[in-house]
Amino acid sequence: MSFCPSLHIQNLALHYGGQIIFENLNLVIPSGQLVALLGPSGVGKTSLLRIIAGLEAPFAGQVTASDNAPLSGRIAYMAQQDLLLPWARVIDNVMLGAKLRGMKPEPDRAMNLLERVGLAERAKSLPVELSGGMRQRVAIARTLYEARPIVLMDEPFSALDAITRTKIQDLAAELLSGCTTLLITHDPMEACRISHHLVVLTGAPAGLEAPVEVPGIPPRAPDNLLVLQTQAELLRMLAQ
Amino acid sequence: MRGIVTFAVFLAVWWAVTQFCPVPPYMLPTPQSVAVALIAQRNLLFDNTLVTLAEILLGLFFGTLLGALAALAMAALPPLQRWLMPVLVLSQAIPVFALAPLLVLWFGFGMTSKIIMTILVIFFPVTASLADGLNLTEPGWLDMAAAMNASRFSTLCYVRLPAALPAFASGLRVATALAPIGAIIGEWVGASSGLGYVMINANARIQTDVMFAALFVLCVLAVLLFTIVDRILRKLIYWAPDNRRGFS
After folding, report:
1. Mean predicted confidence (pLDDT) in A215-233
2. Which of residues 112-151 of B touch A (CB under 8 A)?
3. A160 closest CA partner among A120, A187, A193
4. Which of B148, B149, B154, B158 to mutate to test the interface with A (most CBs of A within 10 A)?
5. What is the mean pLDDT of each run of 10 residues along chain B (248 residues)?
6. Which of B143, B147, B162 sits opposite A87 (nearest CB)?
7. Which residues, 6+ apart, have CB-to-CB distance to A36 below 8 Å?
8. Interface predicted TM-score of the whole assembly (ipTM), two decimals
9. Strand ranges (DSSP E) for A17-59?
10. Does residue B28 form part of some domain?
């Protein structure tokens, strides 16, 4: 992975049909760190992510990288659904970005990534032949294939069962280490285990609470005392 | 198997009506007399079936091609869609029967007017189904393609078009079922060959059995054509969820 700049969100505002979703939002995602963003449904988390990804325009404010280079082409986006194309084989799904940009696909690199997510032998399968966990692993491989310094993830593991989710969280934390990552999640345990720190977006219009630091290096064990303490603290914050 | 049973029941009811109702044979011939006509006129029927089949296939080919191109053009240039869609709906509102004599006048008694008639009949379902499919792409896929810095053209080629194929296939199935109607209407209005021509001729001479024989051949042709197209489409669009079993 090349140098990963930090991400700076400054005075961001979003209005929808006269309604203020959020205003004066400021957040820094430090270089090479994973920040988890939590908050109740409908608070504007996904909109925030879409603005950073350039899929939606903000009402005011800006998102910049610490090296002042434009963000376009440096962000990988992973959504809640795996978004695998059902007509393409697993390996072609991994290499989709290259095809869409009219670049030469690199099957060796794609195979290598599939190996790292443990699906090398399924490279020629169609998505419909895979389980939910496998599909989400292919989506991770596709995100990594983009080799982008900034990664945005919108509840990527929420549709998985608890055991699969834990395994994939560990895998994602390992593979994304070094990338500047913003992860939206509903799961306090997930946030505590795999993020460097976490922030909570609440209220209407929504505002960010002070960031919560989780001691230790992710991925942390689920029975880590600090993880459990932070999780309890987080649940109290979210319930308010 | 089910098809055979349905057909047998249909034949039995038909036979019973001719046996027990006072219907003169020039209004409703018996199944036996139709079978006899089918065999006696096999050369006439075969030659004219080939003509109608050629009209249907050429009409299907060009109609699908033109319809697909129109839908793709509308997807590539959204303003075109706002201009073209009302024209398409309008074209569908004009009864093809009213157009048929004009087409014969313009394009003659030969195959061309029938092929154009078939194209007119199937153009709308083909265009509308593909245009719909292209407009209803899963938004998540479009976001993903945008995040991957895909151009509009490559998004259309690699995401929107494949995603639209199941909808397009529905349109093609409707088109396949409608295409014989287009060809036959064309032949009714003015032709020198084809199954529609045989029917009109037999009707004028009160050879109702020959007319029914031609109708029977047309039905078999339509069912066969639909089955083949349906099979090919399901093979090609192998990823689409499909809960049906075979058509026949």
Report:
1. 85
2. 138, 140-141, 143-151
3. A187
4. B148
5. 87 90 85 90 92 96 96 90 87 84 88 92 93 93 93 94 95 95 90 91 89 92 94 90 57
6. B162
7. A183, A184, A185, A190, A191, A194, A195, A197, A198, A199
8. 0.86
9. 19-29, 34-38
10. no
Number of domains chain B is built from: 1
Q: Is A97 on the interface with B (CB under 8 A)?
A: yes
C-alpha A36/C-alpha A169 separation (Å) is 12
- Distance in angstroms (rounded) separating the CA atoms of residues B148 and B128: 29
β-pair partners for A150 = A75, A180
- Residue A200 domain-assigned (yes or no): yes
Residue B158, token pair as written in the block? 């690699």
Rounded CA-CA distance B209/B203 in Å is 9
Confidence at residue B245, expressed as pLDDT on a 0 to 100 scale: 54
DSSP character string of B73-101: HHHHSHHHHHHHHHHHHHHHHS-HHHHHH
| Under 8 Å between Cβ of B129 and B165 | no
Of the candidates A54, A75, A79, which has its C-beta nearest B140's C-beta?
A79
Tell me the CATH number at B212.
Answer: 1.10.3720.10
Whole domain around residue A89: which residue ranges?
A: 84-147
Element (H, E) at A77: strand A75-78
How many angstroms separate the first and last alpha carbons of chain B? 7
* CA B171 centroid distance within chain: 10
Q: For residue A1, name the pLDDT band (cuts at 50, 70, 90).
A: very low
Peptide bond into B101 cis (omega under 30): no
Cα nearest neighbour of B237 on chain A: A87
**What was the pLDDT predicted at B88?**
85
pTM for this prediction: 0.84
